């Protein structure tokens, strides 16, 4: 087998496929993606032996917008006997690297609910059998590859592995987050997920520190502001819409009923700019660039609305234009974009001003 399995949001398979095709070509790996609409996964077939391994090792998952997980496939099984699904999986186990963990999964599509119950039940006996055979280490080891058995139908599965240095740590590539009962809107989870995704936990103390100032453009009713307030920051919330009263009562929020495209901070003390205005992506990207160029904020997290078609191509164009704009002004930056679990028709971008390397 010489395939790479990528999980994505159902309905975004073509975008995930366009992206993996482009990124593999860039690294000199040739192949083609197999796409089934609404399957929530893409299978990329590499032409050259060993290339699937290369992709999961050398292509950073972080550099992909639409893929939630990336797995090198070593075997594919179908028509498994319901009385003994384990033996055929063990029989192909020799093609796997020694694993430190096992995830029996299914892509996050319409059939997932029904299959998940089985996956969970099947995990325990399969783990025992794989350990006995030496395919899995006797104890979980977070440094060793993760073995994935992905059921795409009741008797059909793909078997492979991901590397912990280049995978999503989450089961099915999906972070689980609890909606905080006192948050004013569900979109609060989008910013929370973005913080988890883009900011390494060990840097939270310095980069998401209490007492920092933030600006939230398109803040009403306050789901994103809530995340900042929760971290003891002070927030300029910009929106003609009303802000949640409880948030206002904290004394940490300053509401500006203004146009987010015209708002300018009066002091240069802002660390974070966040923006959830539903607007033309090119306009939002340009605005974010202006803020960084002016030095009005150090880091930004913002949404870019996805177009109806050629989503990968167009979003890449927006990001490239933003990058070129920052280059023109000699601003060194880091930029990453992801179609997060809580994103639907938009992606989330993290942009950070950095010191230029000498
Ligand atoms: C998706 S909602 C934001 C939800 C918010 N992030 C939350 O978590 O509660 C988009 C908001 O952007 C605001 N908006 C759209 N265009 C704007 C503009 N030009 N200036 C300021 N706010 C704008 C809308 O009023 C709306 O409240």
Automatic annotation (TrEMBL):
It is found in: Cytoplasm. Residues 1-71 form the RlmM ferredoxin-like domain. Coiled coil: none annotated. InterPro entries: RlmM_FDX, RlmM_THUMP-like, RNA_MeTrfase_FtsJ_dom, rRNA_MeTrfase_M, SAM-dependent_MTases_sf. Keywords: Cytoplasm, Methyltransferase, rRNA processing, S-adenosyl-L-methionine, Transferase. S-adenosyl-L-methionine binds at residues 187, 220-223, 239, 259, 276. Residues 84-162 form the Ribosomal RNA large subunit methyltransferase M THUMP-like domain. The active site is at 305 (proton acceptor). It catalyses: cytidine(2498) in 23S rRNA + S-adenosyl-L-methionine = 2'-O-methylcytidine(2498) in 23S rRNA + S-adenosyl-L-homocysteine + H(+). GO terms for cellular component: cytoplasm. GO terms for molecular function: S-adenosylmethionine-dependent methyltransferase activity. Residues 185-279 form the Ribosomal RNA methyltransferase FtsJ domain. Its EC number is 2.1.1.186. One of its GO terms (biological process) is methylation. SUPFAM superfamilies: S-adenosyl-L-methionine-dependent methyltransferases. It is an enzyme of class 2 (transferase). Monomer. PANTHER family: RIBOSOMAL RNA LARGE SUBUNIT METHYLTRANSFERASE M, RIBOSOMAL RNA METHYLTRANSFERASE FTSJ DOMAIN-CONTAINING PROTEIN. NCBIfam families: PRK11760.1 (NF008734). Belongs to the class I-like SAM-binding methyltransferase superfamily. RNA methyltransferase RlmE family. RlmM subfamily. This is Ribosomal RNA large subunit methyltransferase M. It comes from Salinivibrio kushneri. The gene is rlmM.
């Amino acid at each position: 087998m010489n395939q790479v399995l990528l999980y994505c949001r159902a309905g975004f398979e073509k975008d995930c496929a366009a992206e993996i095709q482009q990124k593999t070509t860039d690294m000199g790996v040739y192949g083609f993606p197999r796409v089934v609409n609404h399957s929530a996964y893409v299978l990329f077939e590499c032409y050259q032996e060993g290339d699937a391994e290369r992709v999961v090792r050398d292509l950073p998952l972080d550099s992909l917008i639409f893929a939630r997980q990336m797995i090198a496939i070593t075997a594919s099984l179908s028509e498994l006997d319901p009385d003994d699904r384990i033996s055929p999986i063990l029989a192909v186990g020799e093609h796997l690297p020694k694993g430190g963990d096992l995830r029996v999964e299914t892509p996050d599509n319409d059939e997932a609910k029904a299959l998940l119950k089985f996956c969970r039940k099947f995990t325990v006996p399969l783990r025992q059998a794989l350990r006995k055979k030496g395919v899995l280490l006797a104890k979980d080891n977070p440094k060793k590859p993760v073995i994935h058995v992905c059921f795409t139908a009741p008797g059909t599965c793909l078997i492979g592995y991901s590397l912990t240095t280049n995978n999503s740590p989450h089961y099915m590539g999906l972070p689980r987050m609890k909606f905080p009962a006192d948050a004013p809107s569900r979109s609060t989870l989008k910013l929370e997920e973005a913080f988890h995704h883009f900011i390494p936990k060990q840097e939270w103390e310095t980069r998401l520190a209490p007492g920092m100032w933030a600006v939230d453009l398109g803040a009403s009713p306050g789901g994103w502001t809530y995340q900042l307030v929760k971290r003891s920051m002070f927030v300029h919330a910009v929106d003609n819409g009303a802000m949640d009263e409880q948030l206002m009562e904290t004394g940490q929020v300053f509401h500006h009923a203004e146009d987010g495209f015209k708002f300018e901070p009066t002091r240069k003390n802002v660390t974070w700019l966040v923006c959830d205005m539903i607007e033309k992506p090119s306009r939002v990207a340009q605005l974010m660039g202006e803020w960084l160029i002016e030095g009005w904020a150090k880091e930004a997290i913002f949404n870019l609305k996805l177009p109806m078609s050629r989503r990968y191509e167009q979003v890449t164009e927006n990001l490239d234009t933003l990058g070129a704009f920052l280059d023109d002004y000699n601003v060194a930056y880091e930029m990453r974009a992801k179609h997060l679990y809580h994103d639907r028709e938009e992606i989330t971008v993290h942009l950070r001003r950095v010191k230029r390397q000498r």
